[in-house]
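Fold this sequence, please.
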Amino acid sequence: MILNIVRSVLDRIRDGFAGACHDDRGIGVVEVILILVVLIGLVVIFKDQMTSLVETIFGRIAEDAGGI
C-alpha cells in the first residue's frame, strides 16, 4: 500500500520534470535576461571610456552650435 503511494508520487515527479524539460515557453525570457546581463557588464567595464566619449561628442556639438 505505502509502496504504491510512494511509487505514484515518484512517477508524478518524474512526469513533471519530463514535461518541464520539453517546455520552451520561458526561453525568450532567459535570453533577454542574459543579453541584459552582458550589456550591463559591458557598461560597467567600459564606463570611463564611454563617459569620456560622450563628453567629447557633446563638447563638439556645443562648440559647433556656438558658431551658428
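Helices lie at 2-22, 27-45, 47-66. Residues 2-66 form one domain.
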